[in-house]
Amino acid sequence: MTLDETMETVKNYFDAWNRHDVDALNGLFDDHVCLIDWEVTRIGRNAVLNCNRDIFQTHKNIQASVTCAHVIDNIVFCELIVDTGKEKLKVIDKISI
After folding, report:
1. Which residues does residue 41 pair with via DSSP β-bridges, in sequence order?
2. CA atoms lying within 13 Å on the CB side of residue 96
């Protein structure tokens, strides 16, 4: 995958996440996707999709803004500001493509 294709995939992921579009996320996730967060660890497509559904239901207006992205081979490290509607969190996401 080229750098442009990698960054397009990352953009598509965050666009889908910000729309709270679980169906679009499903199309982007590998069967072995893993989510490790402050409070949860989920492994597998269905587990991660369900976790995202829960996040979107709990935080109706949650949005993530990518402030910077660093690519190393097939891994993208994204610096984010996640706005829950109540607070803004500085976050780093590691995305393997």
Report:
1. 36
2. 6
Q: Residue 1, Cβ neighbours under 10 Å: how many? A: 10
Contact 80, 64 (CB under 8 A): yes
- Chain mean position to CA 36: 11
**Could you report the per-residue pLDDT of 41-71, keeping only the tens digit for each?**
999 999 999 999 999 999 999 999 999 999 9
Q: 17 exposed, middle or buried (CB, 10 Å; 0-12, 13-18, 19+)?
A: buried
Task: Please state the length of the chain.
Answer: 97
Q: Could you tell me where the beta strands, DSSP code E, fall in the chain?
A: 34-36, 41-43, 63-72, 75-83, 88-96
Q: Which two tokens stand for residue 39?
A: 């409070």
